[in-house]
Amino acid sequence: MSSYILSIDQGTTSSRAIIFDDQLKIVAISQQQIDNFFPKPGWVEMDANDIYNSVLYVVRDVLAKAKIMPVEIKAIGITNQRETTIVWDRKTGLPVYNALVWQSRQSNDLCEKVIRSGYEQYIKQKTGLTVDPYFSASKIRWILDHIDDGQVRANNGELMFGTVDSWLVYKLSNQRTHITDVSNASRTMLMDIDNLCWDKKLLSIWNIPECMLPEIKASSEIYDYTDALGVEIPIASVIGDQQSALFGQMCFEPGQCKNTYGTGCFLLFNTGEKRVNSQNGLVTTIGWKIKDKVCYALEGSIFVAGAAIQWLRDGLKLIETAAESEDMALKVPDSGGVYVVPAFTGLGAPYWDQDARGAIFGLTRGTTRAHLIRATLESLAYQTFDVLEALENDTGLMIRGLQVDGGACRNNYLMQFQADVLHTEIIRPVNFETTALGACMLAGLACGAFESMDELKKMYNVDRRFEPMISILHQSRLIQGWKKAVKATMEF
Ligand code: ADP
Description:
Layout: E1 4-10, E2 14-20, E3 26-33, E4 45-46, H1 48-66, E5 73-80, E6 86-89, E7 99-100, H2 108-116, H3 120-127, H4 136-146, H5 150-155, E8 159-162, H6 164-172, E9 179-181, H7 182-185, E10 191-192, E11 197-198, H8 200-206, E12 215-217, E13 220-226, E14 233-240, H9 241-248, E15 257-261, E16 265-272, E17 283-290, E18 293-302, H10 306-315, H11 324-329, E19 339-341, E20 359-361, H12 369-395, E21 402-405, H13 412-422, E22 426-429, H14 434-447, H15 453-457, E23 462-466, H16 472-491
Parallel strand pairs: 1-5, 5-14, 9-12, 15-21, 21-22
Antiparallel strand pairs: 1-2, 2-3, 4-7, 6-8, 10-11, 13-14, 15-16, 16-18, 17-18, 19-20, 22-23
Helix pairs in contact: 1-6, 9-14, 10-12, 12-13
Adenosine-5'-diphosphate (ADP) binds near residues 323, 325 and 407.
């Protein structure tokens, strides 16, 4: 009988389940879209029961597609959208409010109040994070403030909090187990990332009772079993999606980094057992914990990346499919001096300018549709340059090689341009489902399907390497133009 691992990738717009074989090859995939609700401008919510039901659906569907028996699944791994906050009733197991999604800004005032009270420095030092509604703490506070007797019920131990991973483990284990892993806990803004425990002072700043929080565990261990497929299967890994992609890219050594080109871009850099604090707008986070070994990471997020290509398609109607952007970009020899700064929702790392809005520079009578498309693609590469530059300043290291994944890394023109502006090799793996892969590998390590990380490394297959093809002088001219464009955007 063969053995397989089932990986659950629970995201903001869909839930996916992927079955991998013991050579890390994909056997079957199932995906289901989930609704997001936008009750007010800037608010994003989901129904936590929808999240669980969609996971159940894809888990059962993928098994049918793979044509294997449940007993052949050796373990289940979970990777999830991070920070999204769910509070539920301990007795009934029912959510007391919609899930507040990571993008949601409804707890902004609560964050500002905490900043005004002078806690920003303490929070940064304990959690590695910038005070922002993005992270879970203010979202829990917001829910307790907006349900009947929220604080009293929380203090009495009647309520439980979890990020999506905790919620799924709780439901899949028939409400027996309330845990999270270090990578997800590091995004709550309640964890002391040096000692890997909930921090009493942070809990008191946000007035959140510890009894509602999950137990913090490693990212690779058997937490409990689920009978969702009719037989008992161990749940053997839990890890946040971006950290999972870092692991799935086999960036196990300090100095290795990956960039995921999805709707936004997330660049994570392995700093090993050492926590590195950023002076340049990046956040410090936990990558994973395996047995007693913790791996830290620096993270830079870019809000608009693939979303800019969607804008070309749906907003400007310049292309019909995202893939067409590549052919169009290659119709012209260069961007003709055009720069697009896609700051549609402000600028993320390393600028953190909430108020900035998008801009286009360098237009002439000769500017064509192809130039605009090419310049928009290039903006993904320039934004990545900015984050890597911040990383190099923080760590004093020169980055040698960037591993890429996510939908937009299919675009060969973009990847070549990325190699050119970074003057660094770009490495694209055959399997760029790295998010699901990371959770699969961690579950496999916990249940003995894989013996070691060295064994896993041998299974990394490169699809293509992109080498820089322009001179340093040419590169620095391109970057100079981009920096001018960003500066003008922020000053506008
Ligand atoms: P997410 O997980 O954030 O939903 P994906 O990793 O599925 O994102 O990637 C989808 C994004 O990648 C979309 O924003 C899309 O516009 C972009 N994209 C997909 N294919 C290409 C392509 N060939 N060239 C450029 N962008 C692309």
